[in-house]
Amino acid sequence: MLALFVAGVGVLGAAIALAWVRRVSRALEVLKQSYWELRYEYTRLRSQLARLDPDDTSAEPEPVVPPVTPSVSFVPLSSIRKKDR
Q1: Does any domain span residue 44?
Q2: 32-37: which pairs have CB atoms within 8 A and are 24 or more residues apart?
Q3: Is residue 2 in some structural domain?
Q4: Which residues, at least 6 apart from 46, have a Cβ–Cβ distance to it below 8 Å?
Q5: Which segments of 1-85 does DSSP mark as H helices, in order?
Q6: What is the torsional sign of CA 33, 17, 20, 18?
Q7: How far is C-alpha 3 from the geometric centre of its chain's CA atoms?
Q8: How far apart are CA 85 and CA 83, in angstroms?
Q9: Number of domains within the chain
Q10: Which of the residues 1, 25, 28, 48 has the least number of beta carbons within 10 Å of its own beta carbon?
């Protein structure tokens, strides 16, 4: 009798957990959809603003700085190895 009660509570808990996961999943889908709509709208408005004010320098990306090359160049191991005397 106790085992049947524990099994029933387990099934009820699993059903509640499944319902909760589905609800959270739907909320996450709505949130992701809102995020992508907002990104699309932001990009669209930014391009409209760039067309309206092409002389605005703040809309231009910053110039790319070339990477600094290391001061040590490649040294082959054969030149470091001690020579036989």
Answers
A1: yes
A2: none
A3: no
A4: 59
A5: 2-52, 77-80
A6: positive
A7: 46
A8: 6
A9: 1
A10: 1
pTM of the model: 0.50
CB atoms within 10 A of CB 73: 6
Return the closest-CA partner of residue 56 out of 65, 44, 69, 47.
47
Q: What pLDDT tens digit does each residue of the chain (85 aa) get?
A: 999 999 999 999 999 999 999 999 999 999 999 999 999 999 999 999 888 887 765 555 666 776 766 676 777 777 776 666 5
In sign, the C-alpha dihedral spanning 72, 73, 77, 78 is negative
In one letter, which amino acid is 52?
Answer: L
* Interatomic CA distance for residues 24 and 16, integer angstroms: 12
Contacts of 50 (CB under 8 A, 6+ apart): 56, 59
Domain membership flag for residue 62? no
